[in-house]
């Protein structure tokens, strides 16, 4: 790039080049140091925090210890996400600094005037400087590429195939289909029918005591622990469990608590010899099963996907790949028609898959864009057609459950996304902690209706009606919004964290905190606490509702809550 530059111009470019070079080097070294620190000293794995959590688990009634855990956990999460934000912002600063440095060096190579020839001396200093500048450009490029590669390894991002912040397509009309109403008996998926968080029926208990036995129909110890929530079909409950490398599916009599059968989900072809890394809050058996009344399907954090009939006979099993990510795997399953829908998120690939329920054959796979998340798919019906909606990062996306074709997507999320979306008849609600709560108008021209960043759950999923939206957070806050306009109608602070998702049943919102206390409030525009009931043990699982009874999985036991 030959320009007519004066000596003064060249001097200015030299100074700018030196400043840009120093800036680039400092940013690159800082980023590399931060990356190493994040990999080796994760704030979320702070030994002090883990110790305090262990002490609290031993004495969950200690209010002072609960507040200490809450404060330390909040600080650790803020430190973690702040570090990630610094690294990702540093990547852009590094790119800008390197571009300026390389541009100035290239300009100096092409335009720097040769030294005057001195008597008796060889005029080669100008040539040597050009060679040196070329080496500097190469060195800067290597530093830039190394730092950027390390950054994107941390972010585990997949390429953007759409190139748009909002994508959509005109939905094909396949004949009018309407949303299924919540069933008073069957609770087939995570958060119930369509995974919406709405229970059918009425007359559910609002008071019980798991320690004293008040309104406890039965209680059984689950052979192997897990954090999958119970699902129900007719007279059967299904949950999963795991211990070390052993995985299992349990079928339990809804009336008596008797284990009807257990099916092994281990020794599946392709199963990894080494377990993937999982967080303290996770494990192998976190994902909730799905059932259609004929089959029950389960997926585990080692990638094992399995299907049993209702008599406990294994129909098929396969390993779909190890979903390695920061916290392990937690996405629950959905069934639509004759397809099992699996949301697969890992550091290597994120996708949505459809499997034939009868044979286990993969029918389709749709690659999704962005980073791995820990949410679960939700089935919705808008414009008369079915959609599977996923809360992702950066996009909340909708797919045709029959083909996997993307219907629409809105770029609006960031951070570590764990909550699933909430839906009502006209809107989709997506949220994640340290980001925001977003209300989306779905459809071919999907757009954001309103947003708020005051109350943002980190694990618990929101639940919505046409009038209200309820969220429960990881620091104990519960908020009720006007679901149409986004106005905050009321808020209330409870002492303990919420990981379980709230369920709306019979005009009440059931909010189960991590200590095992169920807070029941009226689903209305003013805060009204109906009751608070103690389970007697900690839990992170969402409750299931069926025929006037509530089923709650604790850390060790499964409970049937019944007025009778």
Ordered list of secondary-structure elements with their pairings:
Layout: H1 7-40, H2 47-58, H3 63-111, H4 125-155, E1 166-168, E2 216-221, E3 231-233, E4 236-243, E5 246-253, E6 259-264, E7 290-291, E8 295-299, E9 304-309, E10 314-319, E11 334-336, E12 339-345, E13 350-356, E14 362-367, E15 378-382, E16 385-391, E17 395-399, E18 406-411, E19 422-423, E20 428-431, E21 437-441, E22 447-452, E23 463-464, E24 468-472, E25 477-482, E26 488-493, E27 503-505, E28 508-512, E29 517-522, E30 529-534, E31 544-546, E32 549-553, E33 557-561
Helix pairs in contact: 1-3, 1-4, 2-3, 3-4
Task: Please state the overall shape, judged from the principal axes of the Cα atoms.
Answer: elongated
Provide the domain count.
Answer: 2
CATH architecture of the largest domain: 7 Propeller
* Rg over CA atoms: 28 Å
CATH top level assignment of the largest domain: Mainly Beta
Strand order of the largest sheet: 1-18-17-16-15
Number of extended strands: 33
Residues in helix, %: 10-25%
Quick summary of this structure?
The protein is 22% helix and 30% strand. By secondary structure, it is an alpha+beta fold. The termini are far apart.
């Amino acid at each position: 790039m030959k320009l007519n530059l004066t000596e003064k111009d060249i001097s200015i470019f030299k100074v700018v080049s030196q400043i840009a070079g120093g800036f680039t080097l400092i940013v690159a070294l800082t980023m590399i140091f931060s990356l190493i620190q994040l990999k080796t000293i994760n704030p979320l794995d702070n030994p002090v925090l883990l110790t305090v959590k262990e002490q609290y688990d031993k004495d969950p009634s200690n209010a002072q210890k609960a507040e200490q855990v809450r404060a330390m956990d909040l600080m650790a999460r803020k430190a973690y996400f702040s570090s990630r934000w610094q690294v990702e912002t540093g990547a852009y600063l590094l790119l800008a600094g390197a571009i300026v440095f390389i541009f100035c060096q290239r300009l100096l190579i092409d335009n720097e005037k040769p030294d005057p020839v001195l008597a008796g001396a060889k005029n080669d200093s100008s040539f040597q400087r050009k060679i040196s500048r070329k080496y500097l450009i190469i060195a800067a490029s290597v530093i830039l590429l190394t730092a950027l590669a390390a950054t994107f390894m941390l972010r585990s991002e997949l390429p953007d195939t759409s190139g748009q912040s909002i994508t959509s397509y005109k939905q094909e009309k396949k004949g009018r289909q309407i949303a299924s109403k919540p069933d008073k008996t069957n609770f087939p998926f995570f958060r119930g029918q369509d995974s919406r968080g709405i229970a059918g029926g009425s007359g559910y208990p609002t008071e019980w005591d798991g320690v004293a036995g008040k309104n406890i129909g039965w209680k059984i110890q689950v052979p192997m622990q897990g954090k999958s929530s119970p699902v129900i079909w007719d007279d059967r409950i299904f949950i999963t469990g795991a211990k070390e490398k052993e995985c299992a599916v349990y079928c339990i009599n809804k009336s008596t608590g008797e284990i009807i059968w257990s099916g092994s989900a281990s020794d599946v072809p392709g199963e990894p010899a080494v377990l993937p890394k999982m967080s303290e809050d996770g494990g192998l058996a976190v994902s909730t099963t799905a059932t259609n009344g004929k089959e029950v399907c389960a997926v585990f954090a080692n990638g094992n996907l399995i299907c049993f009939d209702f008599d406990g006979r294994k129909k098929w099993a396969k390993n779909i790949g190890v979903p390695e990510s920061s916290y392990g795997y937690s996405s629950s399953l959905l069934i639509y028609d004759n397809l099992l829908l699996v949301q697969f998120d890992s550091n290597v690939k994120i996708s949505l898959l459809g499997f034939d329920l009868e044979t286990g054959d993969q029918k389709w796979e749709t690659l999704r864009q962005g980073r791995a998340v820990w949410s679960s798919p939700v089935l919705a019906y808008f414009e008369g057609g079915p959609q599977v909606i996923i809360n992702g990062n950066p996009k909340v996306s909708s797919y045709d459950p029959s083909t996997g074709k993307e219907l629409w997507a809105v770029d609006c999320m960031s951070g570590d996304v764990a909550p699933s979306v909430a839906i009502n008849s006209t809107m989709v609600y997506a949220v994640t902690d340290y980001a925001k709560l977003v209300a989306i108008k779905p459809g071919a021209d999907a757009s954001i209706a309103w947003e708020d960043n005051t109350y943002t759950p980190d694990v618990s999923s929101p639940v919505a009606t046409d009038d209200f939206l309820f969220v429960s957070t990881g620091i104990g806050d519960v908020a009720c919004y006007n679901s149409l306009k986004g106005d905050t109608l009321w808020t209330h602070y409870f002492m303990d964290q919420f990981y379980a998702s709230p369920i709306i049943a019979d005009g009440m919102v059931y909010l189960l905190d991590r200590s095992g206390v169920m807070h029941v409030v009226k689903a209305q525009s003013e805060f009204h606490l109906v009751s608070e009931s103690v389970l007697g043990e900690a839990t992170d699982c969402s409750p299931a509702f069926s025929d006037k009874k509530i089923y709650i999985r604790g850390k060790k036991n499964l409970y049937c809550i019944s007025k009778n």
